[in-house]
From TrEMBL, chain A:
One of its GO terms (biological process) is double-strand break repair via homologous recombination. Pfam families: RPA_C. It comes from the Eukaryota. Coiled coil: none annotated. The keyword Oxidoreductase does not apply. Component of the replication protein A complex (RPA) required for DNA recombination, repair and replication. The activity of RPA is mediated by single-stranded DNA binding and protein interactions. Belongs to the replication factor A protein 2 family. GO terms for cellular component: chromosome, telomeric region; DNA replication factor A complex; site of double-strand break. GO terms for molecular function: single-stranded DNA binding. Residues 162-269 form the Replication protein A C-terminal domain. The gene is RPA2A. This is Replication protein A 32 kDa subunit A. It is found in: Nucleus. Keywords: DNA damage, DNA recombination, DNA repair, DNA replication, DNA-binding, Nucleus.
TrEMBL record, chain B:
GO terms for cellular component: nuclear lumen. It holds the Pfam family Rep_fac-A_3. Keywords: Membrane, Nucleus, Transmembrane, Transmembrane helix. This is Replication protein A 14 kDa subunit B. Belongs to the replication factor A protein 3 family.
Length: 277, 124
């Protein structure tokens, strides 16, 4: 469910369209089979640190309300140390530094770490581990950055994933994935630009109110009951649930159909969410 | 895990807001003058970079500078990375440019061939 959404979100240019309807590819082909189904989340060190500090159970971290599977970090190598069995360094991505360790067992591993030098940009994929109270990344893939357009691309990717998760969180303000949503309790006018902020604000312009109606309508279609139904929801049912005028609902539905969030089923009045989770 | 010294992404306008703080900026090198690197920021203004890498970077290359903002248009560099010439270059522009170039070459070859034909026919 949520993990496959990560994989869809992790693919480039996926936007908010077909969230989990496509079979997702792991971002690194060297992922072991054990990790291939867990997904990779592009994050900054600051996001990881905030998640670590705000979690009570340090063994399970949540970013934007989503459990972190594997992480993808991009930054500069600092203080590289080579030992017989591992290579460790600090990765500085501009938001902070985190320790990364790469266990070296085979020649291929040694070749992979040989190109890493202090001061170079690398892309690290690994999992988060807490060791003696300190968080570190146990990496299973380290790649040198050759095209430096990857640097802003990674940050844009982090922003995109955060925006996607925050948008979903607005629909489920206090819930972790899997809980049902009561659309009547959705906070009106919450701005997406502030991360992890759930306090409501009054919409100050017509544009804000329209966006909120679109979100409300989409959330109705993404309720578990709606997802299980084959035919989806009739437009009138959405009107009854939200108490918003029919023309506004139709406008929101047209928008979501254009973007790809929902599609019509048995006739022009029944729609279903494209999200398959 | 240490987040005590983040480097803020800045252009020339934002640099003024982070005086004395660690910043990072990408500039396109205009010239090198005795230890100073002068370039254009992403918002089209001139920035001066002091210190940093001992080597000079080629003109027109994009260089990322990480350091301390110590002036309205100046950064005291701790680290510089050469991002090359194609940083931020739109791939479509490159494709379009190479297409135009190849068409020009074809036209040139065709013209030379025609000229050669005329020359040969005149001789005979």
């Amino acid at each position: 469910m949520s993990l496959s959404q990560f994989d869809s979100g992790a693919s480039l240019f996926s936007g908010g369209g077909f969230m989990a309807s496509q079979a997702a590819q792991p971002t690194d082909s060297t992922l072991s089979k054990n990790r291939a189904s867990h997904g990779v989340l592009p994050l900054t060190v600051k996001q990881i640190k905030d998640a670590y500090q705000s979690s009570e159970d340090k063994s399970t971290l949540f970013v934007d309300g989503i459990g972190i599977p594997n992480v993808c970090l991009l930054g500069i190598v600092m203080n590289k140390m080579e030992k017989a069995t591992d290579v460790s360094f600090a990765l500085d991505d501009g938001t902070g530094r985190v320790n990364v360790i790469r266990w070296v067992n085979e020649t291929a591993d040694r070749n992979e770490v040989a190109v890493i030098q202090n001061g170079v940009y690398v892309l690290v994929i690994g999992s988060l581990k807490s060791l003696h109270g300190k968080l570190q990344v146990t990496s299973f893939s380290i790649r040198l950055v050759v095209d430096y357009n990857e640097v802003p691309l990674h940050f844009i990717h982090c922003i995109q994933i955060h925006a996607e998760h925050t948008r979903k969180k607005i629909g489920s303000p206090f819930q972790l994935p899997g809980n049902s949503v009561n659309s009547n309790h959705i906070l009106i006018g919450v701005r997406e630009s502030r991360p992890a902020a759930n306090h409501p604000s009054i919409p100050t312009s017509k544009g804000n109110a329209e966006d909120d109606i679109y979100k409300l309508v989409l959330d109705v279609f993404e309720e578990p009951e709606s997802l299980t139904s084959d035919h989806g929801l009739h437009v009138d049912e959405v009107v009854k649930k939200l108490g918003i005028p029919l023309n506004k609902i139709k406008e929101a539905i047209d928008y979501h159909v254009d973007v790809g969030h929902i599609y019509s089923t048995i006739d022009d009045y029944h729609f279903k969410s494209a999200c398959t989770s | 895990m240490d987040t005590s010294s983040p480097a803020v992404f800045v252009n020339a306008e934002l640099l003024k807001m982070y005086m004395g703080r660690r910043v990072r900026a990408v500039i396109q090198v205009s010239r090198n003058e005795g230890g100073l690197m002068i370039g254009q920021s992403t918002d089209g203004q001139q920035l001066t970079v002091k210190g940093g890498a001992p080597q000079t970077f080629p003109v027109s290359h994009y260089v990322e500078v990480i350091g301390i903002a110590d002036g309205n248009q100046s950064i005291r560099a701790e680290m510089c990375t050469d991002f090359g010439e194609r940083f931020g270059t739109c791939i479509l522009t490159l494709v379009a440019f190479s297409l135009i170039l190849s068409l020009y070459v074809i036209f040139l070859v065709a013209s030379l061939f025609e000229v050669a034909q005329v020359f040969i026919s005149k001789k005979t």
